[in-house]
User: Fold these one by one.
Assistant:
Number 1:
Amino acid sequence: MRILFAEDERDLNDIVTRKLEAGGYSVDSCFNGREALDCLDCGEYDGIILDIMMPEADGFQVLESLRRRGKNTPVLFLTARDSVADRVKGLDGGANDYLIKPFSLEELMARLRAMTRRPFGLADNVLRVEDLTLDRTSHEVRRGGVEIGLSAKEYALLEYMMCNRGVVLSREKIEDHIWNFDYQGGTNAVDVYVSYLRKKVDEGHSRKLIHTVRGSGYVLK
């Protein structure tokens, strides 16, 4: 999944970005509210983490702009301000969760997993399609009980397709959610990684789960 992370404290920004990337997320990180708004103009995100006290535009202003555009992307606020009034303002303004600094990185990851599963109607962190399972906590993927080894990008693609099971995803839609603005790969990257996944997920099984919809994209079902 693709995450927007806005935090003006550069050391914290770097630490959290590296943790998110290690967790399989594609991350666009920025250091102020204006940069966050620019990213929202150009990209699609599955989750947003916002520091409240940022220069140029604070987290409340970024959230207000997001919701005014009709976007329901889940938002988690990070802040050193722990007053009830601030929490109420953020939650009433459309934030989905709130984490007070200093915080545990593992708690941040758990809250992000919980927040991003809600739009897909997921009850827990284990995704299931037929005999294929993906555990979003351990990153363990199995088919028919046999573990499948995936690269970080293969895992991200499979997770996105399983969250959208039965939905035809265009190449552009997949690219928008799996790669960030720093991506420098070729234009056929989606096709290449779908091919990798097919070999690992479907090869040797009579029941194929990954399908091409000619002229439209791919679907997992």
Number 2:
Amino acid sequence: MNDVRIIKKTGGLGRRADSGDAISGFIANGVAVADKLDLGTVYRVKSIDDVLALGIDAKYDSTNEVLVFEHLNEVFRINPNADVFLMLVAQTVGFDAMVLKTNESYAKKLLIDAEGKIKQLAVAYNPDLSSVSATPTADTTALKAAITAAQDLVKDEYAKHRPLHVLLEGKLWDNTVTLDGSNKDPLNLKLKNAEGVSVMIGQSHSVATVNFGTPEAPIHKFIGYAAVGALLGTVSAAAVNENIGWVKKFNVYGGSLTDAAIEGKLLTEISSGDIETQHGRGAIFYTTHAGKAGIYFNDSFTCTEETSDFAFIENNRVMNKAVRAIRQALLPRLNSPVLVDQETGFLSPAVVKSIEMDGRKALEELLSNQEVSGIDVYVNPEQNILSTSELLVSFEIVPTGTARTITATIGFKNPF
């Protein structure tokens, strides 16, 4: 019959499924909690209440002389929407052992159990401090080994189609070492050739100087800790292309962080030259800005040279997200028949167009979210797939820039 038909459309609001960019992992040494938390077991926590339900609270930290609740509390303070796969391991497990690619008892198990969902993994080192009777001595030996192991893990996970970025606690960082090695061999993170790893050395002064002794004989067992939980919270809250040092968006002041420090020293007690040295070594730490209240990150360095395409966390996160999306788009074509031109044997125009459309669709989310500036997909039709059985697709991404330095000019003008 004649009628007026009104067709209801959908999709106009532009709603998208959760990208999963915030899904994170956290592994640390700790102590089991009877009937609540077992070592070596993976737990998924989506709020601080989930953490508390496992028996992890401030008393857990102080009683066991570890920092687990502190880190996780900072994660959820900074990013209340964080989604964290958590594993605690025995305190006898070494820093590098936690992230060994060949050991499926620790970080590798965490990543496998999370089914590749983890995009960033934070690692905190809590060795047994029960015998510590004085302030621990700065020593980056364990950290150096952990950086190497973590980069190997990143490479292995990439090969297994689970790309991620690793954030390490800069345990017992030596604030006194200069780049010329005048005290001892410095740890210049930019020379570690570990583009998939970042090291946090910034601290909350109040946490670093918790006194386990007496006023007359203080024992600061946590003086060598670094706030890797706060770093994880910020990275997980940021869009993949955003620098965690963005002043407008990432003021991390609050909670236990009211005064920033490095190796137990307030920023105000460290010379500007020494701070520039830490920055030049590629370490991530807290900073402040004159005329702007709050505490911020200095930058988003990775442990590689600054000329690398992957010298900053956001470079890695954008690429990792693109790699995941591209694989998801192209995987259905694996082992599929591919039409070729009957005269030349090259790819048919229809096949080329179809593949390029799928490729662009895979990266549409990054483009629409302004996480990249532009994308390009190209399939060369002159491929001899009949002989090689290999289909070559080229993707190019134009990233967004980061205003690391802003230069403005100012002067007087005589309008006469």
Number 3:
Amino acid sequence: MLGADDFPSRALYGRYLRCTLEELLDKAPGGITIEFHQTSALSVRPVGDGTFDVGLASGAGIRAGSVVLALGHIPSRLNPEQRELQAAAGQLGLQYFPPAVPADVDWSGIPAGEPVLVRGMGLNFFDTMGQLTEGRGGKFVSTGSRLEYEPSGQEPLIIAASRRGTPTGQKRRWTATMPPPSRCAT
């Protein structure tokens, strides 16, 4: 059970989202149709009668009475400081990875044992660290009372930096703002 000051793991949060979806599907009122399309929406255009035509990457289209744009993490233009860092890295023969969802980045070009500077120590830092360690074959093993990391030898040397010099504090009041669905155990 999570307390008011606890932060859920990504796996627990994923289970929460899955359970919430299942509960919403079970409780949908009669006359409501829910369809899943495993593709991307490429366009949304209003139709004169108050509905919308949604164009899908599959070539199909959907006519909808309402549209909610939940875009998630989308690439953005680099700001001036990021452009300078990218240019400096290029001049020095280094790689620069702009801010992104760590799971969407190809980290394979970073050689084992090479130093990697990771700017920022928020939640993406921990995901990046996971990609550069466990994602390369390392694992956590129980020593009884604690977990210890057992490297695979394929990890780079991670150097973490932030303006404050400390990891970002955990999110507060998760249970207060995200109550579990009634039938989901946390």
Number 4:
Amino acid sequence: MSEVIALSHARDDSMWAVVASFGKNSRVAEIYPTRMAALADRTWREQQVRAYAAFLESGRQALPRYSVVPMRRADLPRSWKPLPALGFLRGQFF
């Protein structure tokens, strides 16, 4: 019985990704095992961006948009690393 459970977990590589979009480009910012955790992270990231909105607009930078999407581990780029919420301020967005 435990072998059946182990096999089903091995095949279940689904997760939830917070995706940052900037114009036509997008990047996986972070991944989570549950949708609720991803939604909480998206909310936090949006709050961080709102806090710096005036600064970004004065520099004529577009604000990133965040969304939550289902994703498989196999779909992550090989060299993927998490994106800090304000990483785009240091030129690390893309």
